[in-house]
Amino acid sequence: MRKSTKLTEKILHDLYEYRVLTVTQIKNLYFKNKDSCYKQLYRMKKKGLVASRPIVRKRDGKKTAACYYITSKGINFLLEKKIIPKGRRADRNMVKGNEINDVLDINELHVHLHNKGYQLVERRAWNVEYGLNYNSLTSGGLITKDGKRYSVYMIAGNAEQETIARIKNEIIEQPQSSRFMIFFKGPNSFKYYRTHIKDGELGYIEYCLLPYNFIAFRLPFFPEQSYFVKLFTKFGKVEENRTKTSNTSFADYLLRIENGQEYYVCNFLLLDYAALARVSSYPMQQYKNDGRKIAIFCWKELRHLLTSIESYEFVEIFEVTEEHIQDHEDYEEVMNRLLNAEFRNPMAED
Q1: Distance (Å, rounded) from C-alpha 327 to C-alpha 329?
Q2: Residue 288 burial by Cβ neighbours in a 10 Å radius (0-12, 13-18, 19+)
Q3: Any idea which of 34-48, 61-75, 265-279, 299-313 has the lowest mean pLDDT?
Q4: Which residues fall within 8 angstroms of residue 327, CB to CB, at 6 or more apart?
């Protein structure tokens, strides 16, 4: 099969599955430069397989760029090639104008993570799988390389308190889900959400409250658990915690540093507030009995999120910096996207 035909199939499948993508997103997925991307999209548009429309910035109505979507002819192409078993009508696959920016924000998960081993499950398919209402506020699902399944939500930087309350209630009413990633497109909603968490909301395996930029600049480094272990090992000897109890359920691993001190490891690199809640309730008596402290791994720039817990006698913060991930095989690629501004910034769109 010709390379251009195979590329056409991949782009069309993505446009069918995720409904709309920007030129930059398509470039990040399949091309080394935008010139090649534009040429490919021009050929596909000329054949009637795709079409484009402007992206309108929310705050002032200004047209900022173009996005692409699949046409009826493009869907028929996929059906003829048996790439999809059956097809939605093109008009039902199209995103409404006022929803385009939100869908593009969600699709960044696919753009930055698909070739790292993650899988983004589109919202409608995730809702069906988990029995969620069509009007659910979920943004879809994210599956890691080692099979962890997260329900994903995205919250605007200026989200109303009523919307945040709806999301919280929806999460509580999801008995099928035990892992959540909630992305915040601005600091105001992030601060409001995390300062209004109630203990009853944190009874999950993972409850990660993440700044939106983690999609492009943090998640690519950790597609599965082994990448966390490799990072922890830079601080000492790591072994699996084979004697978990209800008091140490937050700790998948034990750490022993050079001076012999042992720790239970609490991984806060993905801002897992469920794990943090379990650390908060850790009994002092257990620390006195076994002598192990709790090592909380946290990004240095986010240490301020731990001010309420770092004064505990049995807690020690292990700061993680850029230096600790510079040997990752994808570090250069991620940094190049940062330098070239090849990522979405919802704060600039609001």
Answers
A1: 6
A2: exposed
A3: 61-75
A4: none
